[in-house]
Design brief:
This protein has 5 helices and no strands. With 146 residues, it is an all-alpha fold. It is rod-shaped.
């Protein structure tokens, strides 16, 4: 009888150990799969963010490409080439007089003050003679009040 009880006890312990082992293995498997699922979701969300950034970049580049295509069509025109030659190479047409104003004068505070004065004069003194207006322009262009 003792032997019988001992066998039952041993088989119960064996079943309990097997249950604990199988539950532990299942819990480990669930934890392992949950971790990898979390990593997969994290990687997928990062890829979606990269995809969204790439899509906005592509849209911006398409817009820039269209702008460049339009600019190219303007650049090859004779009017644009003539304008650039006049601006950069300081060419003028037959009927034009070319004024070359140094960059430091263009960027000076004095020029902005003189332009403000000229705007004020044009609004206030509309009855000036052409000679007076010509003298104002000469003073503006050739006086060294920089």
């Amino acid at each position: 009888m003792l032997k019988k009880n001992w066998k039952r006890r041993k088989s119960k312990e064996k079943i309990t150990f097997q249950k604990i082992l199988s539950i532990s293995l299942m819990l480990f498997f669930v934890a392992f799969m949950s971790y990898h699922l979390f990593l997969a979701v994290n990687i997928a969300s990062e890829r979606l963010q990269v995809l969204e950034i790439a899509q906005t970049d592509v849209e911006e580049l398409r817009i820039r490409n269209l702008e460049l295509i339009l600019e190219k069509s303007e650049v090859v025109s004779d009017e644009y080439i003539e304008k650039e030659a006049r601006d950069k190479l300081r060419y003028s047409a037959e009927d034009e007089i070319l004024f070359v104003i140094p960059e430091d004068v263009l960027n000076s505070e004095w020029l902005s003050q003189e332009l403000d004065k000229a705007k004020g004069l044009s609004e206030k003194d509309e009855d000036k003679t052409p000679e007076e207006i010509f003298q104002i322009w000469l003073d503006f262009l050739f006086l060294n009040n920089v």
